[in-house]
Task: structure prediction
Amino acid sequence: MLTTVEILLPIFALILAGFLCRKRRIMGPTAASELNKVVVWLALPALLFDVMAHATWTQMDQPAFIAAFALVAVAIFLVVLIWRMRAGRHLADASIDAIAAAYPNTGYIGFPLGMVLYGAQSHMLATIATIIVACVLFAGAIVLIEIGVQTERQPLKLAWKVVKSLAKNPLIVSPIAGGLVAAVHLSVPQSAEMFLKLLGDAASPCALISLGLFLAEDRPSGRLRPTTVILVALKLIGQPLLTWWIAGHWFGMSGDLLGITVMLAALPTGTGPFMLAEFYKREAVVTSQVILLTTVCSLLTLTVLLVAMGHVPH
Result:
């Protein structure tokens, strides 16, 4: 359990740093939004481009893992999306709620936790999971949000406006560009590699500090909501248990491969949903609560899961 705490503690510390900076008025009321723009327009696109530019088809040849991990994540996303829309939620807001329930923090927690528990063999699976999260869940949510926020309702005109909006979105363009670079076997110059690395490394701390800044704002609607509790339960309990069952029974996975798959599905919600909420100026109270609570509660749920699978951190 100590190892799990050591991995999660820096996450909490960065959120707390942003929280304290806002509470002590070191940063102003627009700091969360402005810092989030750095993540969305610079740091995260650099990270996504870099991951895709260095991916190879041989490394990504993990059909059972891809199917099990993606199937459950998409299922959770769609169930929450339908539920929230039937409850009267706007499509854009329902999409953000849905991704908050299905978006594991594979990039910021998955890599270090996987290395501690399973060694280098977990690295490629964590990379594949990150690509699925970014290019399937994240991209799908962006498409739905764009459809929701557009005022045009004629199908062809709506489709064209959505395509134009997506073509300007750095979180969509960057992984596609990186994939094209990998597909044609282009080598990225050393100076460009350093540029991408510097920006990509800034994505995690800036996003977490931005979340802390947001949480520090005084909001009358900031009380814990029932929706938050349901989304947290789906993320930390429903997603890993369903992944465990499907990966083991449908795809016959076992041993470390099963363990890594379930561990990645059990990770707390990443900051991506919060970035989307801020970027599209949607209500982000539930999203920020889900991120914070899943990160805090994952200390317990991940420890229980690891013990159940026979992988106790030392």
Observations:
- The domain at 2-308 is CATH 1.20.1530.20 (Na+/H+ antiporter like fold).
- The chain has one domain: 2-308.
